[in-house]
Amino acid sequence: MKKLLKLSLLLAAALAMVVLAGCGGGEKKAAKNDAPLKVGVTPGPHAEVMDEVKKIAEKNGLKIQVIEFSDYVTPNSALADGEIDVNSFQHQPYLDNVVKDRGYKLVSVAKTMIFPIGIYSKKIKDIKDVGDNAVITLPNDPTNGGRALVLLEKVGLIKLKEGLGIKATPADIVENRKNLKIIESEAAQIPRTLDDVTIAAINCNYAMSAGLVPAKDALAREDSNSPYANILVTRENMKDDPRIAQLIKAYHSPEIKKFVDEHFGGSAFPTW
After folding, report:
1. Residue range(s) defining the domain that contains residue 162
2. What confidence tens digit (pLDDT) does each residue in 50-83 have?
């Protein structure tokens, strides 16, 4: 009898531990869902918009911590390593290239805005004034460098091998009648080269951070039909987190669309 009583007590204790463990797991999950969502952005437009998104999200119960990165590489590595939960700075072709090269388990969960890449200059006022032996700065990352080359081809400065699109590199230029000299540089640093080159292809967010107004200062730029819409990106194992859905709802709100239209004055285009 005593042995049976002892066995019953042990079974009851084990059952209690299982129940408590189950409750503890539920509490941990709830705490995770209540934790601030860490969102990585690049300085300028992406940060400015996310600050507005944060205000709307927090009114609806979602806490957001906005973290700025000064380059295009770190936001994805930080996301893959779990240092942040979401990032907002890149378009789909850029993400695809990073995932292919580095094997990150990252996915796009929503489109945000189009930030057209543009050609800028402090030395000429019209793209037609680009002369022989002009020096050009382009982004050195594969997709944005390709976008810049496609834009240069569109305005008649070069010709590329057919069918490459944004996969083109300077080595794929098949016609360069003006003997243009191309310098590749990190995208964030290109605005600083404007004093030294004839023209520079600058991503919209970095142009705006440098005090340029793309809608009026660009000699040429992609239009609102550009396929390079920026996206919200998270890890594959986080895509169904309820906080992600709340973030998307706040970003795609009428208030943010109005902010983008008014604040950027046609320099950026909402995609929703």
Report:
1. 118-221
2. 999 999 999 999 999 999 999 999 999 999 999 9
Q: What confidence category does residue 269 fall into, taking pLDDT thresholds of 50, 70 and 90?
A: confident
Closest Cα partner for 47 from 30, 61, 67?
A: 67
CATH number of the domain within which 232 lies: 3.40.190.10
**Residue 24 domain-assigned (yes or no):** no
Q: What is the pTM of this model?
A: 0.72
Is 162 inside a domain boundary?
yes
| CA–CA gap between residue 99 and residue 106 (Å, rounded) | 7
